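thread: overnight batch results

M.L. [08:02]
morning all. the overnight job finished for the chain we discussed friday. pasting input first so we're all looking at the same thing
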Amino acid sequence: MGLAQIIYPRPAESGFQEWAWDHYQHHLAIIQQASVKGFSLNQYRIWPVTQENIQDFLDQHQQMHSEMDEIANVQGANLQDIDFKDKKKVDAWYWLNYVEHQSVASFLGGGI
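M.L. [08:03]
and the structure it wrote out:
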């Protein structure tokens, strides 16, 4: 699964859920490749994402990023606090999330 699928959700009704699945799969690939490289990352429940569990998603997702950023020496962003009503902030959130995934994937190698 490539990084391109987690930049932004497709502009379709199912776009966010497709993004959420691809994003989750990329986290699993990072965990697996980190293990190959001798690092241990925890797996948190970040999928499925619903309106009812959005705060849990944000909290656990931030924890995953904090852990993966630490092993790759990446200066991470605050991905825990987001105003979903502000499109510019949402777009920035997706971009910052992507950049962290890209940085960690580059550090770990293995084609993730």
